[in-house]
Design a protein that fits this description.
This is Expansin-YoaJ. Keywords: Signal. It comes from Mizuhopecten yessoensis. This protein is mostly beta strands. The N terminus is likely disordered. The protein folds into two domains: 118 residues, Barwin-like endoglucanases (Beta Barrel), CATH 2.40.40; 88 residues, Immunoglobulin-like (Sandwich), CATH 2.60.40.760. The strands form two sheets. It has an eight-stranded antiparallel β-sheet with strand order 13-12-9-10-11-8-7-14, with no helix packed on it.
Length: 245
């Protein structure tokens, strides 16, 4: 029984940590696939609605917005990530993808295979590319937040403009323990078990990035504001010298 329990706990640990490992792999390897076009879109699965794109998406270093393939989207944890896309110029169509592009993930390409992206601009063809994640060029801009459909008894929170994607979001409760949000497929986090109700303000958060970096941040507010971009205490994940940037 003890051996069985140990094996079960190991399996659960691997399952819980799989997305962190998979996301970090996106920074450590090049993945070959196809580059395609799906036209200029105003929104997408990641729920970034212009003009309220995160600051990093407007950074001059970002050349394009893309929809990321489904196998490497990880249920929208990849929303807001940045990638280098290197085009070979080889393929079929009228608009070849050549050279290096620095792109921002704003959508999901459900039919795309691993290593592939769909460019959010007009174009034609299917072209050979390789992709690799990089830390987003956030500069000195902080992590941002946005609530959707929330109230004092239910929170749906978007974490935006992160250098590396957050894979765990927690909120401090009255007894000082942290309760974990659950991730959604549209780029948000919702309340799970263990949350005080009604919500107590201000909102104290603990964010953990895919590489394990942790920041404590506070959203200074005394009531819920939906569909408004909010700033905490100016926190951002640290630059990781072991990952591309």
């Amino acid at each position: 029984m003890k051996v069985l329990l140990t094996i079960l706990l190991s399996v659960l640990t691997l399952a819980n940590g799989s997305h962190e490992h998979d996301i970090i792999n996106l920074y450590k390897h090049n993945f070959r696939g196809d580059g395609t076009y799906y036209g200029v879109g105003s929104s997408g699965t990641c729920s970034y609605t212009p003009p309220d794109l995160p600051p990093v998406a407007k950074n001059h270093a970002i050349t394009d917005y893309v929809a990321l393939n489904s196998p490497q989207f990880f249920g929208s944890l990849a929303c807001g990530m940045c990638f280098t896309v290197n085009g070979t110029g080889h393929g079929l169509g009228n608009d070849p993808i050549n050279g290096q592009h620095i792109v921002f993930v704003k959508d999901l390409c459900p039919e795309c295979h691993a290593g592939s992206v769909d460019f959010a601009k007009n174009g034609d063809g299917r072209w050979g590319i390789s992709i690799r994640a990089i830390q987003c060029p956030v500069g000195n801009t902080p992590i941002e937040y946005k609530f959707q459909g929330s109230n004092d008894y239910y929170l749906k929170l978007q974490v935006r403009n992160a250098r590396i994607p957050a894979t765990k979001v927690e909120m401090r409760q009255q007894d000082n323990h942290y309760a974990s949000f659950q991730h959604t497929t549209d780029g948000f986090w919702t309340m799970g078990a263990g949350f005080d109700k009604p919500v107590r303000y201000p909102i104290h958060l603990r964010l953990t990035a895919a590489n394990g970096d942790t920041v404590l941040d506070t959203i200074h507010m005394n009531h819920i504001q939906n569909e408004v971009v909010l700033h905490g205490s100016g926190k951002q994940f640290s630059l990781d010298r072991n990952l591309p940037h």
